[in-house]
Amino acid sequence: MLEVKNLVKTFGNYTAVDNMSFEIPDGKILGLIGQNGAGKTTTFRLILDFLTQDSGVVLWNGHQLSGKDYNDIGYLPEERGLYPKVSIQEQLLYFAQLRGKSKKEIEPKIDEWMEKFKVKGKKTDKVKSLSKGNQQKVQLIATLIHEPKLVILDEPFSGLDPVNAELLKDGIIALKEKGSCVIFSSHNMDNVEKICDHLVMLRSGKMVLNGKVHEIRESFGRTKVFLESPLPPEDILGINGVESAVKRSDGVVEITLNDPKAGEEIFARATQFGYIPMFNQQPPTLEEIFKMKAGEPNE
Amino acid sequence: MSKFWIIASDVYKKNVKSVSFVVMILVPFIVMGIIYIAGSVAGGFSEDTKVGLVSDNQELSKQLAKSKTDDYTFKVVTSQKEAEKQLKNKELDAFLVLDTETEQIQGKLYAESSLGTTTELMMGQMLNGLQSSLNASKLNLTPEQLTSLSQPANFEKTKVSFDEDGKMTTGQDNTAIQSAMSFVITIILWVIIITYASIIAQEIASEKGTRIMEVILSSTKAQTHFYGKLTGVILVALTQIVIYAAAIGLGYTQLKNLDMVKGLLDGLSSANILGSFLYFTLAFFVLGILVYSVLAALCGSLVSKPEDTAKAVQPIIYIAMIGYFIGISLGTTDPQNIVIKVSSYIPLISSFIMPIRLASETVTTAGAMISVVILVVFGLLLTMFSAKLYKSNVLVYSEGGVLKSLKQSISILRNERKK
């Protein structure tokens, strides 16, 4: 269980992290989203004790993170890097040894992990001979092979194609099922939405969103309607509480509401002549929320 | 195995197995081999230099033509024109026109290319000899008188010291052999420092540049990593020293009966070189390597990209160069110079200068001791400072130079300390 309480970090006059609090129970995944410079990496560095906070505490299983906990950590920094001239196997063994594992423990697992992430190449291949995507997978294996209890992944999906992103998602979910605490940052809201239990959004170091993914979405109200009906957009715009209605190229009209209640009126009008193929009233997607929140002026 | 040793042994294995290490080890042996082969082969191949001799004095010419040296032989040629023709046809390598008509012998050597300083020097000496005997016969001197004229004066130097009662005692002068040793040691120190400064800086800069450092910092303490790296590289240096020591030892047992080596060893009787001179010199040598390694590690942790390592090592090379050149230039010509006296106490350059001052015996044991203490204290402070700074250094990716990065990480360190 990771607890972050009232964390504040300033660099000179600049507040990088402003009163941040959240907790991740064992076996849960927290997604940290925010624009570039919002304070995500600083948050990770504070949790890892690379930086010292001005105030607030980070507690891991009830105590402050110390040297004894290093072996339980798996950390993937945002900027990727491996030793280019060293073989995959030596690399993985070295990092695992630094996490307190013995060569004997890790060696038999390497094949399994390489298979799991579908790394192309032999374990005796030097890292520089691998493609960028494969190097990234090797680094992910290095982050996870010692089965860490606290997993911190800074932008793990960046640079991965959808197939590999799916492999990574499976990997993260497998860790969660084994009871690890996972925290990761991402720009890809789709990934966040699918695997996160909990979501924190940062803007200029402040938490602007904090909660379960579906709760956050619902809190914005079901202000989106996707409608496929004979009703023309002009008529919809006349309804009270409708902000915009745009017909997409596939014929679906995308309606944004000021008031979710307007959905009832739209439904009634659209179905007055009987069957329609689609009426779907949704809260805004995370991506929309992200854009909305990122665009808000600072208080 | 503790994480410290995992890091140290990783650095050690990586470097010892590298091609550049093997090459570095082999280079002195290869160079020695080449010198040996060049020396023995060259002797067999070099041809006698044929020098034509043009002179109006026939008797002298014949006499000179008979006297053969290892370097050249004279061949009497009748006229300068004939000599020019033979030189053109490569029958001669050079020709000497000798004019003995006046009281001063005049020799003019004509050659297309230099005959080498040895040959030219020998010819000059030969002519000097001729001049002397010519002068002697003119003055009606006997050969004995001539010899006594050219007798050199006897000049000896004696090293003295004063005991507690102010009584003067003479002692054996070891400064020559000590100077030679201090030179050899400072050269070795210089080579080791420039080699290992780059290795250690590269080792750290590449990890920082590839961002592996962040992963490592989440696995172990920054200090552990810093000391582990340092220890690994120092072990590599130690390996190199041990290999050379073994080679010298082996060479000694194999070659100790050769005349040349025997002659060398006679001068090097152990009493001459043992004692405080050697101990202090070795202390400066070892401490020098350690302190420079720490400095290199610090500089390596300040760069953002591995490509910038050379830039980071430059200040270290400059410092070492200053010490080295002050040592070898002023050390021999002017050992009492104030610059050399002061600089022999300044850490980093004292390692180069103090051994030379010790060799010329212009410093007391107490002086050397003070300098060692200054160096040790400086080394410890630098190491602790570097290890502290290391954690903030590796998170600073500044585009500016080394100094700018240093400033930035010191401010981070201060910032962190306040809290």
UniProtKB/TrEMBL annotation, chain A:
Q: Name one GO molecular function term.
A: ATP binding
The protein here is known as Sodium ABC transporter ATP-binding protein
| Keywords, comma-separated and alphabetical | ATP-binding, Nucleotide-binding, Transport
SMART domains linked to this entry:
AAA
Which Pfam families does the entry link to? Answer: ABC_tran, DrrA1-3_C
The record places domain ABC transporter at 2-229
PANTHER family listed in its UniProt record: ABC TRANSPORTER ATP-BINDING PROTEIN ALBC-RELATED (PTHR42939:SF1)
Known PROSITE patterns for this protein? ABC_TRANSPORTER_1, ABC_TRANSPORTER_2
UniProtKB/TrEMBL annotation, chain B:
Q: How does it sit in the membrane?
A: Multi-pass membrane protein
Ranges for domain ABC-2 type transporter transmembrane come to 20-387
Tell me if Cell membrane is a UniProt keyword of this record.
Answer: yes
Q: What is its main location?
A: membrane
**InterPro entries on file:** ABC-2_transporter_component, ABC2_TM
Record keywords, A-Z = Cell membrane, Membrane, Transmembrane, Transmembrane helix
Q: Which GO terms describe its cellular component?
A: plasma membrane
The Gene Ontology terms for molecular function here are:
ABC-type transporter activity
Can the keyword Transmembrane helix be found in this entry's annotation?
yes
Cited Pfam families: ABC2_membrane_3
* Membrane spanning residue stretches: 21-45, 180-205, 226-253, 273-303, 315-332, 368-387
- Where does this one sit in the cell? Cell membrane
Top-level taxon: Bacteria
UniProt-recorded name of the protein: Sodium ABC transporter permease
The record lists the organism as Enterococcus ureilyticus
